[in-house]
Amino acid sequence: MARSLRDQVLALAGVFQSARLVQQLAREGRGDPEAFRTSVRSILAVDAASVDAVYGDMSGLRLGLTLLKDKLTGRSAPNDIEMARYVVAILHLEGVLRRQPQMLATIGTGIETAVTQMKFFEAGGDDADVHPALVDKLAELYSQTLSTLKPRIMVSGEHGHLMNPAIAARVRTALFAGIRSAVLWRQLGGRRWQLLFARGRVARTAAGLLANI
User: Fold this and answer.
1) pLDDT 10s digits, 181-211
2) Nearest Cα to 152, choosing from 63, 92, 100?
3) Could you tell me if 26 and 171 are in contact, meaning their C-beta atoms sit under 8 angstroms apart?
4) Among residues 62, 102, 115, 177, which is most buried (max CB within 10 A)?
5) Is 150 helix (H, G, I), strand (E, B) or coil?
6) Where in the chain are the domains?
7) Beta-bridge mates of residue 121
8) Any idea which architecture 5-211 has in CATH?
């Protein structure tokens, strides 16, 4: 894929969006439906020809782009520290995964199997649009691979939600999507220093993308 700041921002928005979804699911028991569908879509789009093809309709990244714009321009909320912790953990785990070619191959094979076996969308207007069995399959793949890397991403939330198998599977799938976006961001030339020294450019690019949704 050709590298551009626009594409890097889209991938980074995918990371931020996944982090917020993890937080929403763990704290509230549900996540933004459109954002969740887009994040799952990104996992399955392993051979996409462009960043746009990875995420589909840009409206599905609205949550992540908004977070990126707000957080890099200093707009904060009480739960931002927790979300930032997830973002940092996801980016760190991507670095660990990069040094595990055998695991990358296993993940790729698992995703191909999921694409082959499962139906992605069903009629409906909420999280049920993503086939529950697909969520379970992706969550299982996460548990067997990414979850074994150290340090593990520790999720905080309401005990009742985290102990609910369906919600826990969505949390793992959201984390999986975050790693996928982090891998894409790195492939596009994204680096952590941009979050410090190029935050203004990143935030402005995110704002421009939001304006066109």
Assistant:
1) 999 999 999 988 888 888 999 999 999 999 9
2) 92
3) yes
4) 177
5) coil
6) 5-211
7) 130
8) Orthogonal Bundle (1.10)
Place of tokens 């887009």: 38
Give the helix ranges, DSSP H, for the chain: 5-28, 33-44, 51-55, 62-71, 80-98, 101-117, 132-144, 159-162, 165-187, 194-197, 199-211
Closest CA to 157 of 172, 145, 147: 172
Token look-up 């969520």 returns 135
pLDDT digits (tens, 9 = 90+) for 112-171: 998 887 755 444 444 457 888 899 999 999 999 999 999 999 999 999 999 999 999 999
In Å, what is the CA distance from 79 to each residue of 7, 20, 93, 112, 178? 27, 10, 22, 36, 18
**Rounded CA gap, 191 and 185, in Å?**
8
For residue 38, give both structure tokens: 């887009």
